[in-house]
Design brief:
heterodimer; A: 229 residues; alpha/beta; Rossmann fold; six-stranded mixed sheet; four-stranded antiparallel sheet; 6 helices; 30% strand; globular; B: 323 residues; alpha+beta; ten-stranded mixed sheet; 9 helices; 10 strands; binds adenosine-5'-triphosphate; binds magnesium ion; ATP binding (chain A); transmembrane transporter activity (chain A); ATP hydrolysis activity (chain A); Putative hemin import ATP-binding protein HrtA (chain A)
Chain lengths: 229, 323
Amino acid sequence: MTLFTIDKVRKTFKNGEVEEEILKGINLSLKEGEITALVGASGSGKSTLLTIAAGLQSATDGQVLFEDQNLTTMNTEQIRKLRASKFGFVFQFSHLVPFLTVEEQLLLMLDIAESPLKKHEQQSEVHRLLQLVGMAHRKAAYPAVLSGGEKQRVAIARAIIHQPKVLFADEPTASLDSQRSQEIMQLLSELTTTLNITTLMVTHDEEMLAYADRMIKISDGAVLSNTLY
Amino acid sequence: MNLAWKEMKKNKVRFLILGSIIFLVSFLTFMISGLANGLSQDNAAFIKDLPQGQFYMAEDADGTFNLSRIDSDLQQEVIRKEKEAVAFSMQMGFLNDQDDKQQSVAFVTSTASTLFSTVYQGEVILDSSLQDKGIQVGDILTNNQYNGKFIVKGFVAQKKYSHAPVAYISEEAYEEMYRVKDKQLIYVPNSEPQNFKGLQAYSNKEFLNTIPSYNAEQLSLNMIIWFLVVISGLLFAIFFYMMNVQKIGLYGILKAIGVKTSKLFNMIWTQMVIITVVSLVLSISLSQLVNLVSPKEMPFSLTISTCVFSDWLYRSYVVRATD
Ligand SMILES: Nc1ncnc2c1ncn2[C@@H]1O[C@H](COP(=O)(O)OP(=O)(O)OP(=O)(O)O)[C@@H](O)[C@H]1O
Ligand SMILES: [Mg+2]
């Protein structure tokens, strides 16, 4: 079942006088529960496409459809609400909030998503998620003292604690060595499968494709190939 | 979740530095304001504490009251017309106490008025600062241009002129000491300027500004204060700006995961308000403490209202600078 559709999306950036078309009419759809990998050369517009899909920036033309909603016609507050409740994000560098403990990072996310859970329920939910990613023992630690892999585990926990429908990941393993990358991808694919989360992931790493259900290759601002494994 | 507070708790040192800068600079501003105020009191409390009104001096004195001589006929005329009017003169000089120690004073003599102390021949009423120098009621003081003696009748608070305590003496004594019968000035309280032939009217403020030392002193101090306010405002704005520039990435992440923009602004403003309020409360209390414990000889006067005023100035400036 199609959960997410990107329809003829174009994006042009103005660099001074020069207008540059980075995305030249992209079509793709995400099937529920699948992990879709987005690959392509550096500068081909992968991150740009991901942020447009996630409603972090708007498309110059075309439509972004999620369930029965059209992101291109929504106002910023509506998109923010959607992002806060239905989307999760993992970035290349974990981008945790430096002044919050591991536990607080996740509580903040529940807070943003306006979770209906009571305080102690939130705390046990946080604990559950941290156990899932194997970080429960570092609950009280601040990001500065965590290793890259540990940070990324916390970032993953933060991205899914509010039970989003779609997870957007921009090179989630690029800052990690090969061993850690495998672990993180393993974790990510397990979690998204059990929680039935649809994932769009940008990656550079060939090895990571093993965890994807589908690979979309973009080149020169257009979809080059769409392969289902 | 209170992000503003959480961040301040985690990054104590950073916020402490910012706070102490505001604290130090505002404390300095308050101290200099206090000093300026104190000096101006010390320099001209005698004039400053008079109610708003008009000062008249002879036109040909050209704004220098020391050179002013108001003809006694003219004086009579003004006093007849204005019941409250008082003619007076002042002149710097010395009083010798019983141990022959010289005290610099500003001699003041006036026609009868409730605004000035009334003294009879052979008496003197002094500013209370001389009490701290060991002079007491009943002491006998002398002046080398005056044949008689002055008996100290009493003390009055806060009567200073040109950094010297005021000594009220009788018209006769003044005339003997300075060999002039004419008064230098006529003061009419609570009145609008009027035209008297040969006299020039000055408001209280204008008159204060004719006193050269007062003018120069206040001008330079006020300039320092303004510079301090401007510099501290800029400093604070720059610091705060830099702090937030460092956090632009963080704000981006928070926005990406769905934090409301208004919540981010709240966070920034809460932090700024907390820091400024805490540092200003501290610096105001400390400057008030200085006000209390500073030695009496130190010209320092800082009322809460001065603080609150400069505080207001300071903050409206900072708010504008950071907007
Ligand atoms: N805000 C912007 N303004 C102008 N140009 C931009 C902007 N954002 C991206 N671009 C340009 O769009 C192109 C695609 O950028 P994008 O970040 O999407 O590439 P990418 O495929 O993610 O590359 P990488 O694999 O290196 O991360 C680049 O040439 C970039 O310079
Ligand atoms: Mg990229």
